[in-house]
Amino acid sequence: MERRGEPVRRPGHRHQRELQREHPHRRNRRLRVQRHVDRQQPGADRVHPERDHLYGLGRYAHPDDDVRLAGPVGVHVTHPDPVDRSTDRIEFPAEGEPQPRLAVHPVRCLGGAEHRLRRLAVGSRGAAARLRRTVRRGGSTGGQSFRVGVGWYRRHLTVPSSWTGRRVEFESEGAFSVTDLYVNGTRIGTHRGGFTGFAFDITSALRTGDNVIAVRVDNNWRADLAPRTGDHQFSGGLYRDVFLNVTDNVHVAWYGTFVSTPALTNPTWDTSNAAYYRNIDLAQYPSESDLRANIAARRSNVRVQTEVRNDGSSAIDVYARQEVRRQGSNTVLATFDSPVRTLGGASSTTLDALSGSLTNTAAMLQGLDLWAPNNPALYTVTTSVVVDGSADGVITNGTVVDAYDSTFGFRSAQWKVDGFYLNGVKTLLFGADVHQDHGGWSNAVTDSGFARDVRMVREAGMNFIRGSHYPHDPSFADATDKLGVMFWSENVFWCTATAGVEPTPSGRAGDYKADGYPQKATDQAAFEQSTMDALRDMIRVNRNHPSVINWSMGNEVFFTASGTASKAKALVSKLRDYAHQLDPTRKAGMGGVQRNSLDQLAVSDIAGYNGDGGKITNTWMPNVVSEYGSYTSDRPGTYDPTYGDVKDPADGTRYKLTTGSAGLAIWAGFDHGTIMDPAYARMGMIDFYRLPKNQWYWYRANKSRWSSLTNLADPTPVAREQSISGTATAMTLEVGRNSSRTITDDGSTDTQLVVTMRNGSGAWVNNTRAVTLTVTSGPGILPGGKSYTANPGTQTFDGKAAIEFRSYYAGTTTITATSAGLPDATITITTTDTVGATGETEPVNFGNAAVWG
What we know:
By secondary structure, the chain is mainly β. It is built from seven helices and 44 strands. The chain has an eight-stranded parallel beta barrel with strand order 27-28-29-30-31-32-33-36, surrounded by four helices. Strands 2, 17, 18, 19, 21 and 23 form a six-stranded mixed sheet that branches. A hairpin with a 2-residue loop joins β25 and β26 (about 425). α3 (about 445-460) packs across α4 (about 475-485) and α5 runs parallel beside α6. The longest helix is centred in the middle third of the chain and has 22 residues, at about 520-540. The chain is globular, with a radius of gyration of 26 Å. The N and C termini lie far apart (about 65 Å).
């Protein structure tokens, strides 16, 4: 098959997305629906907003409006559930008819958090009180207070006639945990799993004009769905971003590009036993000597495998053109094409494009910037899908119908028996385990909130994050890429100290105190498939990130009953083999392998040791201390690293690793929600509201102890900060570290507000008081509405309190802090318009918890 002539770009060929902001991986690819604005986007169709507040899939609406998608509070239908399961249709009453009673229920975590889904309808009395109550403990003291049940989200969507003949796709980055999507009353599909994204084609259910999109999310525990348990919380709802993608019939599939750098890739498999490298073709890698030569010369080829979907009815000829650039540059470094393929209607294919062979080093890209913590260099490949309709194997003057940008980097990552090697240099992994939830907001964290988390870990002299214990938001890996932190991305299969427990579902949070592997044989096949599906989607979303240095199949699966231990182990091995098939460029490890002989190459490629496993000497496979510490404290805590089981017996302020260990990660980076014992919630070196404990200050001040052994983005020690004893006579209200007084109205950014008690000299004092923050003018919200109280012993410690503020409307906001006996403190935050909503104002009673129930 062949190509003739240069492709012609069809107007509006780029992926389009209706949303309040563009997806970070698909910039300039989707159409954005502007709020109250009908503005033409370059290369995009014109979209007409609906009559009232249109915020993309997920904004706050006035209490008289329809239920919207996305925001900090969820809406839950308490009676009746409007789904007819016999027909898979949903019927909401028409306007003016009696409506289902809707109750506003916060999806909660420590600190009284709500999930991101915004708006809701008038609810049951008492919901507002539940929303405003702040909880900071685990287990029976608050960790099980999040709501379990069904949530409904609904919005109207106006479809313009210009979308005729195009494909429309609903995409969510994550909803916990079973999601049913309806369009105009017809069920489109169901997604099972709470930590990975999904997409549904909704074209056939849409009509020109008004449409209703409804989403039903259910976070009830299910015996056959992972995760079944865990040391965290299981808050429900659409807590991550939602998008609407509008494309040509022929288009790149969801996260459909796999970008690799073959000349820099050789994971170094142990070939002594075929069971250790199943689904791996060794011929695809350069030799170790060639790899080192390529690293030294900073050269590589590029391979892009692009999954293309033809949703039309007729066969077409198609190829993919790839253009490589340094991120932020217009200079094209390389252009190369895939072979032409004939693609039938309603089918998919993978177009494989390679810039050159492993043996032709002269044709490789030269003088590359290799990604590393101290040099997080990123590149972009633009994939253009070129078609013609003749289906004769020849494309003459083809047309570009889709273009898709993928961020990637050039680097070599190798887990070896004697340690981890980055770009050919042995590099200590020194880092932290990180859960995703934030105090006050639970799992509904903004992109800037994740970036602050990564930056705080980096500031502590760390270069490594283990994403415990589930796939994180896509923006988290964006942040690790940009900020130079290596990332262990983990799947949903994990167990905890609840072996043998098989609950009878009660619809309560306590159901999640279960064995991590099903105890009933009838549930096991579906459960195992759910872990496979989550692994597949995690890898698909994150495979192009240079910061991701390995996949993890899960955590501590030895915490299962003796009768299912062998099945749990076999599942880990099955997942590892599947990871090899999905991504042969990275190894697949497992956290918490210190028991039941899980630390074997027949099970996984990398052994992650937790707790006392850090004392095990493993000379037969790559290994790392995936958890150490587990020290419970409130701020300020101890000024000590708390190395625990890896503490050097001769000096408790130093660690001691066993022979060949690649490094260590503290449990935990941040306090987090948990259904388990309250002590488990408070093991972070940073608290739930993202204020440092003394542990964090110790690491930041002492990073020179290990900086010579590794590659750090931020190697310079910084002196400790601490309070002094005293009584406050004033307080300050400021933005926190790595926060700004300016945020955006697109939902991607927020700011951390920090209240500090001060004495007459202005020094920080440890006088801890209750403080209330109130939005006194302008747009924006705090957890629970326009006011938030931080209480001593829950949110306020050591003379400080913090909470995050966000706004979905442009304007200037004044926030006032009050505390009995002290002068008020104020701060002004500016929210800028990035979604074309200039002049739009926040609805009356927006965020007024008093009218929510």
